Amino acid sequence: MILFSLTIPSVTTAQAPSNEWDIGWESDDEVEIMILDSSYNFNLVIEFWVDNSRPVPANIEFVVETNEDFTVDDPGSTSVDANTNESFEITITGSGLDELNELIDARAQHYDIVTLTANLMVGEQSSDSKEIEKKVQFSPVYQFTYPSIDDVKADMKAGTDKEVTIEIANKGNVDDAIKRIQFSFKGCPQMDYQLVSGLQTGTVISDKTSGVIKLLSPSSHPDKTCTFEVSTVSEGSNLGYVGSFTFDVDAPEKVSNNDGNSGDTNTENTENSAAEDNSLPFVPFSLSILSVIFAAFVRR
Q1: What are the pLDDT digits (tens) for 234-251?
Q2: Beta carbons of 235 and 178 less than 8 angstroms apart
Q3: According to the CATH classification, is domain 148-250 in 1.10.1200.120?
């Protein structure tokens, strides 16, 4: 009887395990960044820990919930020794492009939430569970389109001007701004321009922005094909983008001065010819007197 009574406390202790166990993230960052590579794919590794303060091992099964387009690799199930703290990893892979092959917007604080549930298993049943969450967001991508003109028919005559609209679109996943912008002509040093509106340094671009440029051609400009170039630099990436378009300048028409006087000259010559045709031949006065005397003598 004495031996039996002494063994009861130990059996009772073994059947009453402690419930002291917990899980948590290794990083205190509120948002984990899914860093996109040059192909806009990502591979995110999130570390977490399991603390088992129980006097017996803890058999735990993990379940991860996140965006259905992502691929998740988690530990599945594991056993954590008694009175130990172990670290584990969740690997999430995916793309930062949507079904239209465009970058997914990353302007919000987070894009999705990763939920990790740990179930403490006894046999095939869950006796307890813990749940933690982590916000995730794509890394920023700063990308402009090349500046473009909305009207490619920019041909003009010398001595005139023409307004064209230049557009720059933001193809990144966050807002960007124009760090620097420049305008220039190639092949036509006589051409000039005037910035009418928009396209200022520091302009923030969420979707796209545009500006109006007035092309100025001097009256002395020759017949020539000109190129107008727009170069801009992204504030976010510091990358440059150059767009250009060509147009023709028609020189003024040349007017000949001889053409205007030719009619008058011909008229004058015609009048002189007519005057000459209607006049009698000139006879000297002395010759006329001798002719009269000779005629009188002959009659006698």
Answers
A1: 999 999 999 999 999 999
A2: yes
A3: no
